[in-house]
Design goal:
The structure holds two protein chains of two kinds. By secondary structure, chain A is mostly beta strands. In chain A, strands 2, 4, 5, 6, 9, 10 and 11 form a seven-stranded mixed sheet that branches. In chain A, strands 1-3-8-7 form a four-stranded antiparallel sheet, with no helix packed on it. In chain A, strand 5 and strand 6 form a beta hairpin. The radius of gyration of chain A is 13 Å and the shape is globular. In chain A, 38% of the residues are buried. In chain B, the strands form two sheets. In chain B, strands 2, 4, 5, 9, 10 and 11 form a six-stranded mixed sheet that branches. By secondary structure, chain B is mainly beta. Chain B is built from no helices and eleven strands. Classes of the chains: A mainly beta, B mainly beta. The interface between A and B is medium-sized, with 30 and 27 residues.
Chain lengths: 114, 115
């Protein structure tokens, strides 16, 4: 079965630094997502992306976060100035189309902010 | 309780037994999905049940949905050690109609199947 690929699998950074998390979506999928899971807590929606623009975002997705798909393949999540509370597992997910609600998740990037 | 809350939080059973996990939600939904997560890995979609469906089967999985009680259950029959994982329900109560799904996940049920 096709897979969503995320890199890196682990990222350690200092507070205040910028990080970019990368995702390679499944090739014929149209909707892309970022979710995160703080250790021991729920998986939380961050943002959805369709047709090269954000379609929905949560209150977590503030001005420090941005997403883009610069080259038509990689889908990236940038955190401009990381905070300690940004430490979490970040999951990329993709969806084939509007009529197909199943999400395919990547294995995640574990972000640790020190 | 919050949207998409599963219970129990943890469940330990012997191989071969059935495992039942429950999920409750608060607002109206179009569909409810169950996902599985192995430790340190991503979520894998298991099954989706629509609001007009009451029961759905997929292999050893059986999902029920009771929209009057706003609850769902996931039954895994004849469990195996390889079923050990966390199981999450996810609802689409924030679906805006635009096609993208802002799924709301519960905290999950951690299932341990002892060989």
């Amino acid at each position: 079965e096709p897979e969503v690929t995320q890199t890196p699998s682990h990222q350690v950074t200092q507070m205040g630094q910028e990080v970019i998390l990368r995702c390679v979506p499944i090739s014929n999928h149209l909707y892309f997502y970022w979710y995160r899971q703080i250790l021991g807590q729920k998986v939380e929606f961050l943002v959805s992306f369709y047709n090269n623009e954000i379609s929905e975002k949560s209150e977590i997705f503030d001005d420090q976060f941005s997403v883009e798909r610069p080259d038509g393949s990689n889908f990236t999540l940038k955190i401009r100035s990381t905070k300690l509370e940004d430490s979490a597992m970040y999951f990329c997910a993709t969806q084939r189309g509007m009529a197909n609600e199943k999400l395919f998740f990547g294995s995640g990037t574990q972000l640790s902010v020190l | 309780s919050q949207q998409g809350e599963e219970d129990p939080q943890a469940l330990s059973i012997q191989e071969g037994e059935n495992a039942t996990m429950n999920c409750s939600y608060k607002t109206s939904i179009n569909n409810l999905q169950w996902y599985r997560q192995n430790s340190g890995r991503g979520l894998v979609h298991l099954i989706l049940i629509r609001s007009n469906e009451r029961e759905k089967h997929s292999g050893r999985l059986r999902v029920t949905l009771d929209t009057s009680k706003k609850s769902s259950s996931l039954l895994i029959t004849a469990s195996r050690a390889a079923d050990t994982a966390s199981y999450f329900c996810a609802t689409d109560e924030k679906y805006s109609g635009a096609g993208s799904y802002q799924l709301t996940f519960g905290k999950g049920t951690k299932l341990s199947v002892i060989p």
